[in-house]
Design brief:
- The chain is of the alpha/beta class.
- The protein has a single domain, classed as 3-Layer(aba) Sandwich (Rossmann fold).
- It has nine helices and seven strands.
- Helix 4 links the parallel strand 4 and strand 5.
- The longest helix has 29 residues, at about 105-130.
- The protein starts with a strand and ends in a 7-residue tail after the last strand.
Length: about 250
């Protein structure tokens, strides 16, 4: 059987790296989408490091907030590997500030990168999935999309928007063997969290019932579960992975 092709946007980041590794271990042909402000060397160094660890993961460049760039990215993947079977919408940014100080640019940047990109990428792969009667789409949201967060009106709105998108598209494609689900991580021990001052980081940790931050590999495990061949009866769902910090 030909390997399923899995594309992970934001694939060279902390959680993205673990997702790429896990899907590679699952036997898929994995492609890490990246933008990084056009810093190709940084992505190539990431690729080389993973190759040394035994992970042969391809790279695909694209600005996920630009439709034409997304289209070129997908066309390149189709040319080199074939149609995308598994799409993990993981790319995202933060531009944190309170609403009274939030500029239109702060709002537009986050909505475009974290939510509009999900529409772009999903729209560009969905027809091939429909044609093959199989597909897996996993959208990476956040605990702050579920509960909101002070200083993150833009980020919380974008991540919350994923839920409506997931449920609507899941209904449209369910009869064609395609599932669409969301994963909502809590505070994960990536560089973003570990760079927070220790005192603040400890306050965050104390608010997590399991008493620790999550590991990127734990989020990757959930993605792996949803992407599996035998995962076809779970669709339109959101799986919270936050150590019990927010239960609903």
């Amino acid at each position: 059987m030909t390997k399923r092709i899995a594309l992970v946007t934001g694939g060279t980041g902390g959680i993205g790296t673990s997702i790429c590794k896990r899907l590679h271990d699952d036997g898929y042909q994995v492609i890490a989408g990246y933008y990084s402000g056009g810093k190709h060397e940084k992505a190539q160094q990431w690729q080389s490091q993973l190759k040394e660890e035994g992970y042969h993961i391809a790279l695909a460049y694209g600005n996920i907030r630009d439709y034409d760039s997304c289209a070129a990215c997908i066309e390149g993947i189709k040319k080199d590997f074939g149609p995308v079977d598994i799409l993990v919408n993981n790319g995202g940014i933060t531009r944190d500030t309170t609403l009274r100080k939030m500029s239109p640019e702060h709002w537009d940047d986050v909505i475009a990168t974290n939510l509009t990109s999900v529409f772009y990428m999903t729209r560009l792969v969905i027809n091939d999935m429909l044609a093959s009667h199989w597909g897996r789409i996993v959208n990476i949201s956040s605990i702050n999309g579920e509960k909101g967060q002070f200083g993150q009106a833009n980020y919380s709105a974008a991540k919350a928007g994923m839920y409506g998108f997931t449920k609507a598209v899941a209904q449209e494609v369910a009869s064609k063997g395609i599932t669409v689900n969301t994963v909502s991580p809590g505070y994960i021990a990536t560089s973003m969290i570990m760079d927070v001052p220790e005192e603040i980081r400890e306050q965050i940790r104390m608010g997590i019932p399991v008493g620790r931050f999550g590991e990127p590999e734990e989020i990757a495990r959930v993605v792996s579960f949803l992407a599996a061949e035998d995962g076809g009866f779970i669709t339109g769902a959101n799986i919270s992975a936050n150590g019990g910090q927010y239960m609903h």
